[in-house]
Amino acid sequence: MASYCKAFVLICLVALLATCTLVASKEFGVVNTVPSAEFEDFIGSPSTLTAVYFYKRRLQRLKHFLESFDAAASFMKLYQVQFGRVNCDIDPVAAYCDKPDVDMSVFAFRNDRVEAKFALDTMYDRDAIASNIFQVLLSSEVPVLQSWIDLSHQQQRYMGDKDIIFSWQKAIGTYQHRVFMEFAFAYGSTYKFVFATNKKVAEEADLRDAKSVKEPAIWVLHCSEEEKTAKTCRQTRFQHSIVLADVLAFVRTLKTPYYVDMPINQEPTPYETMNLHLVYVATDNSNEHEAREVADKLGRALRGQAGVILLNVDTASEITLESLATDTERLREVPVVAVQLYGQDTMHFMHHFSEGPLVEDLEVLLSEHRRSTERKKIIQDEDEGFDEPDEEVQDDVVAEAVYRGRYAQLDLTYAPALTDKTFPAMLKEKSLLVVVFYLSWEPRSAAFLSSYSEASLDLKDEPSNSSPLARVACDDWPDVCQLNNVSSYPVTKVYRDGQYLKDYRGMLDTTALVNFVKLLQLPAPVELKTVEEVTNFREHVLSAGATDTAVLGLMGQEDQAEIETFTSAARELQGLFILGLVKDKALAQEVGSMYGSSVPGVVVVKRDDQYQPFKLFSGKIFHKPSLVKFIQLASLPVFPELTPKNFPSFFIQDKPFVILFGGRGEELESVGQIAAAEELPVVFCQMNMVSPASWEQTFSSSMCQMLVFLHWSWSSTRREECLSTLTPMTSQRTR
């Protein structure tokens, strides 16, 4: 029986290993599995770059990486880069597999030496992997410039010898960087490729349009045509987005002549297969010398955008002229320049023949055509339900932001990752624990982790000398998340003295989270026993910055029901506001007299509300829901500047908006007084315009201009009643 059991266990282990090997092989596809005995030879090639991943465990969040690693391996074969993986579970290479977290990086080897190590966070997709590998592969051939001085040195070095192709890239690891490095690999012997990730390099080098470009861009510096003594090289900017096909077409044009003569007998020009606009410089024999100078200068200025053709109407056949333009008489009015936009048959005749205005007008024409074409393509793609490839555009703004920032390294030292073992231990250790539960691959989780990292660094210097933040990756520890009732991601939960307290429901940004945690560390409520303590409490709260609101509960010892309700409300609102409680009737009356409040009473004091600096609660203090709702609403300014951050707080009130656009001085004061009176069931707010002068041209400057947004659910009668009430009040107060 014992031997049977041993045999059964052995069979199970063999089956398990076979299954693991099969699964891993399926996930890696074309990537070679490297036996430990062959590992040194595999990474020892002096001429080949080798990318290796040390595989340890099969996690769901690694699935996308493994697929991308496999896709990159297939793609990078073209560039003589070999990919491999070591299975640390079955056939480990001890020197690496024994290291903790070795499976969270990709290693690049050359000549038996580690050239680079990439965290998986930076190997986001196929393009990110290929881009990073290209960067190592071409590190000595394609320098990363740090300043405009570096670019100046490159120009001086290659002046009169070789053209420089320079690019500004937002980061290494993007699709655009991958494309640029592909061309550097293919054309490195013809051009000198350099790039910078700091846009100031392009701006301070005075490259064309550098200050206005928003996305990665490419410039060609034509140093080969300059004299050795020249200071800078003439430049051409690539006008399109960095897409492989467009960049290829652009690079091909760099070796064409500045202009060509119109071929005889309708033979093709060098521009025929390049998808270029065509610029015809028409002349006769008497103007040919001047026309050639203009054609040469236009060819240099429009390099990569248009091909320039010199057309002599005295030597061209009638058939040639008729094939070019229906208006052959206009074409004979030499000298003249005409443009045939790519994909069109008609000619656009220019109004100048001198170089300066011509170049400017031509560039405007080509730019407008490019924008029009792009708009038409967008509309066509939308009509056809076309989806952009994942490597270029993500499907929502959060995913796009994460995609753009995926190369950023997060410092989560002070927000440690918890496991099923360390989570209970941390609950016991810390009196206050704030934990974010997230999915590593989910865009909103990744976006919030950036803010979470910054918040942990801000909080590490608190008096407690330790940040209360921690995190749990639910794709790694689903059992921990299930035990804590996590059903959406990301979610941040607060624990006090080992017990769940509440969820964080504020903005997913650094400042809001830091303020929330700081307020959690204060008592709820703070007991106040003297006038001095009340004054210090109010002034400290309104100057500390964690909240704009101080809430004072004014009670006597006999008001036990009100005290209990206020205390319960303070605990519910902890993290959002600071609530102070006076339990001495004489003191409460003295403080209440400052605000005109009765006892028992509640006063909400606001720091940034000049029109309503405080508000009194007039309901039944022992009714907690009413008190909580009052504090939440009373904390809002009555006439705020409307912003994306505060808009939800006002919109949720289900009231129409009255918005003052571009008001000044007396206008603001008048509307602020109306808002503070709270006589109308509306939300008053203001929006400062960037250029008030432009609004004065549209609206009369002699009166307060207001736009009323009435709630869509209101009946027309209710809207008219509101408007009829509002109009005389605003006109009277602003007259």
TrEMBL record:
Domain TXNDC16 N-terminal: 33-133
UniProt name for this protein: Thioredoxin domain-containing protein 16-like isoform X4
Provenance organism: Branchiostoma floridae
Annotated signal sequence range: 1-25
CDD domains reported in the protein's UniProt record: PDI_a_family (cd02961)
Transmembrane segments annotated in the record for this chain: none
Location of the Thioredoxin domain: 418-518
Residues annotated as domain TXNDC16 second thioredoxin-like: 136-257
Listed InterPro entries: Thioredoxin-like_sf, Thioredoxin_domain, TXNDC16, TXNDC16_2nd, TXNDC16_N
Pfam families documented for this protein: Thioredoxin (PF00085), Thioredoxin_6 (PF13848), TXNDC16_2nd (PF24509), TXNDC16_N (PF24508)
UniProt KW Metal-binding keyword: no
Keywords for the protein's UniProt record, in alphabetical order: Signal
